[in-house]
Amino acid sequence: MEGEREEEGEKGEEGRRRKRKREEGERGGRERRRSKRRRSKRRRGWRERAGEGEEEEEKEEEEEEKEEEEGKETRRRRRRKRRRRRRRRRKTQLVTCDTKLRDQCKGTPCNRYECPAGCLDAKGKVVGTVYYEMQSSICRAGLHYGVIDNDGGWMDVSRQGRQEFFIKSSKNGVQSLGKYQSANAFTVSKVTVKVVTCEMTVAQLCPYQKPARHCPRIYCPRNCMQENPQLSRVIGTRIYSDRSSICRSAVHAGVIKDESGGYIDVMPVDNRRQYVASYQNGIYSESLRNPPGAKAFRVFAVI
């Protein structure tokens, strides 16, 4: 009996051990499965995060490219504005009543200025009579000589080199000073206006000469684009051959509109070796290389 009890006890012990092992194995299996799920979840998270990172990098690259394009466009707009301002300043410059020619005429052609009203009461000094010293007020010199009045207006200026002395005088409500010392001088003149046809060229109206002279302000009629392009040629871009139609060149350059016409200024310049063709504002311009003897001109808006 005792032997049978011992045998049954050993069997029970063995059963409990097997049961514990089975339970431990099941727990281990559950733990392994859990850890596997955790690893796969982490891998999925990494992949998702990696995907998000790639998307974010792509977005950042797209934003950088967009900013770069916007920056380029902004720079282009600024360059265009600077070019427009330079084109306006080169021929027609807005000045104040006290602006001196010495301060204004630096590195730009000193041709045509627009003076404001009320310069008679300004303080800018004028040195000389007829020939004015470079430190003189541009507009008050124009008042003194009589090319403009106190309502302001346009005037042409010509540099005249050195003068030995400058004479004082009182004219048109402006007292000028005298100076008995040589200095650079300028003269002033009225701006003349010329109404032209669509076929008129700079070579016919105002050819280039040395020393340079002032061309009249030009009034272009409407609808010059409808003219025969063989009779009203446009040769060049920005700088045009003086054989070109003035008004069609102005439309090509964008300084006036074809449907309205309007006032423009031109500046004859020396010959160019090459004129570049282009299509602008509805007009095709021609190209030309090494033209014999022909001169050129630039065209400016009147603002």
TrEMBL record:
Subcellular location: Secreted
Amino acid composition bias (Basic and acidic residues), ranges on this chain: 12-29
Source organism of this protein record: Coilia grayii (Gray's grenadier anchovy)
PROSITE patterns, alphabetized: LCCL
This protein's name: LCCL domain-containing protein
Alphabetically ordered keywords of this record: Disulfide bond, Repeat, Secreted, Signal
Transmembrane segments: none
SUPFAM superfamilies: LCCL domain
Domain LCCL: 91-186, 192-295
Keyword Magnesium set for record: no
Stretches the record annotates as Disordered: 1-93
